[in-house]
Amino acid sequence: MTEQIEVKVNGTVHLVSVKPYDTLSRVxxxxxxxxxxxxxxxxxxxxxxxxxxxGMAVYSCMYPAQYCVGKEIGTVEGxxxxxxxxxxxxxxxxxxxxxxxxxxxxxxxxGILISAERLLSENPEPTVAEVKExxxxxxxxxTGYGRIIESVMLAASEMRASAKxxxx
Amino acid sequence: MPTFRPExxxxxxxxxxxxxxxxxxxxxxxxxxxxxxxxxxxxxxYIPEVKSVVSIMKxxxxxxxxxxxxxxxxxxxxxxxxxxSGTGDAPGLEALxxxxxxxxxxxxxxxxxxxxEVCISVPLVDLPTAxxxxxxxxAVVSPKGEREESLDGFxxxxxxxxxxxxxxxxxxxxxxxxxxARSAFVKFGRTSYDFNLVNVAISLNAxxxxxxxxxxxxVGGIGRAPLRASEFEKRLTGNIADEKTVMDAAAASFEEKxxxxxxxxSKEYKYAMIPVVMRDCLLRAYGxxxxxxxx
Lengths: 168, 295
Known about the structure:
heterodimer; A: Ubiquitin-like (UB roll); DNA polymerase, domain 1; 5-stranded mixed β-sheet; 5 helices; B: alpha+beta; Uridine Diphospho-n-acetylenolpyruvylglucosamine Reductase, domain 3; Enolase-like, domain 1; 3 domains; globular
């Protein structure tokens, strides 16, 4: 039995059709077309599908679509403004991954960016241990994690400096 | 792989509608809370027969309140909310805080619920071991009314609890720990976010000179449900425990042939790890008191 629900993603409300077994990741990718949210293991083991729901990092592959009504969903496309992927428009965090080699193949990156962005919004000055804890649910098979952690730490300090000078 | 294709998803604020649907559909309906464990099982092909998914998330069961000395935690309270409440940092309830921190990642803790973690009855989850050690019970509601059931005895087998069709767990009740009690939980797993191979929760009271006056210990991950380490409790209670006594008591509490193996840990391996994890857990609990170190 298909039903129509309203889902708000990156500030925009979408009317989508969902089936009783749909999870948020399918809705994002196939109904709305936001393919930044990746499908990895599809059962909560890899973190590629991480999005934010009401400000909390969640696995969209195991989040029932029906639970999204009335919630604010955030995906990687929303970090720098939807559809805007020019280098200049990237956030400090995204640029840090680019500049510091925080990715190789990139498949896990979108989920990692959400996890890291959620961490930094709550804790602007994390320790390396706190970064590792926040990223424990995001698997990367290329980088060995060193550069990812570095990218988050460097972004955090740049964001703090930028907040002090009032820059963006 | 069998396909998971339910025909209905019920997300209702009406408890009578939820319980009615569960009663009427029996094994064709499956109750869910946060859904994390359920969707993982579904994707792995373990839930093919279900026609209706019935959610309890809109029943107003996300709460924590103190009643007398005990804490009542609503079934749909997320693990992260319980962790952040500090309930598991109270003296005697530290095992709960330890267990919640060990349930990774945060993406799961943000969605998974206390009721779900208690009811899913997968042999590899962490919170039930800690709750059992803290003497927790569950409030069960059905169209016939409400009853309280001790968690000790609630688990019959893997994926099987004392819940009947048409019943749900409404809240988990954590009693006030005995005065002077301290506890700990230790998880041993392959990676930081993986399921456990062995987990242990111990609550104790210690007297002068480190004599153990009360010991309550449960071990998870090694059986089809969390198991009480009765022999361990018996041998250590009333004694000042040295390392050999602790390790021997742990090994004597279980038999290798009864251990549930998994892809990451054979019977032999898990059995060998039990005394190590139990010793670490005992030390951690003991170290939370002001007494001398374990000899």
